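sorry for the late reply, my laptop died twice this morning and i had to redo everyting from scratch. anyway the thing you sent over, i finally got around to it. pasting the sequence first so we're on the same page, its 346 residues, then the predicted structure underneath. double check i copied it right bc i was rushing
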Amino acid sequence: MNRRRLLFAVVAVVLSCSFSWAYFKVKTAGPSMTASAVSYLSTLDEKELATSLKKYDDPERVGWHFIPKDTRKGLQIKNMNKQQRRAAMKLLRTSLSAAGYNKATQIMELESVLHELEGGKGRNIRDTKRYYVTIFGKPAEAGKWGLSFEGHHLSLNFVVENNKVISSSPSFFATNPAVLMAKVPNTKFEKGARVLAAEEVLAFDLVNALTTEQKSVAILADKAPKEIRAAGEAQPPQEAAEGISAGKLNEAQQKILRGLLESYIENMPANIAQANQAEIDKAGFDKIHFAWAGPTKPGIGHYYRLQGPSFLIEFVNTQPDPAGNPANHIHCVWRDPSGDFAIPIK
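ok and here's the structure:
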């Protein structure tokens, strides 16, 4: 074992011991993420470290996307050994809640569905292990470092400073198919499987609970856009919120809105979720706006936006799945209007 790798291994043990008690006491993600990141790095050799570990200010840190690209930053899970894969997935697990981790791993598994439905045509692209791990900066108790876990239909980005997660955006999840219309052989999914169910069902519940007058304010267009705005861009859109404000909704409608919002907040560990909710509460729930575009029934392209002073959610479902079922391909993202990647917008 070379000196660099040995150093990471020693630090991993020390950090794991020092962080474990604190983590279970205060239930914070930062110390656990740092310990898991150090542990992951300790499994890599010099060449692998050069691929998976970058400087914090590397321009690639703010480069993100969810399309099936030929090449990506970071070390591909497929090219890791078993120990490295376990460490990489532990890092992902500590970065998300149980619900978020379940969604992320199922999205990865959906690549096997695409492989089957496409008849193997996308063999080199549709791969459940074609996901990449990149760490920016040296994970430590003090200082700042970033994490990217990314591949087709999944882009998760974090910044940890002094063992506190200060940014968890952009956070992108997507599914194709959104709903499995039939059992797909050679996969673990059954007919009707739906990874991002609440994100879509509750939105339909909300828009269809609106009165005619409310719909005239909430619905921005008869046709949905093809994609979320600023896809792959380092910072989110800066346009003012549109649609109907939460303050104009009745109690039953507000309850649906809260549930829809929770389907996104729940993806993060408890303390991050609580911090996000606290920011929403501080800014005022009434300031949240809900906007819709497209028809208000499934199977036809539709889009919605949830926006408050501290967050921006966009959801679009306009593309068909590989079997040709229309509007059965979801893209959705959580962004920070004040600046993604812990970079304040000036």
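Residues 3-26 have pLDDT under 50 and may be disordered.
thats about all i looked at so far, will dig more tmrw
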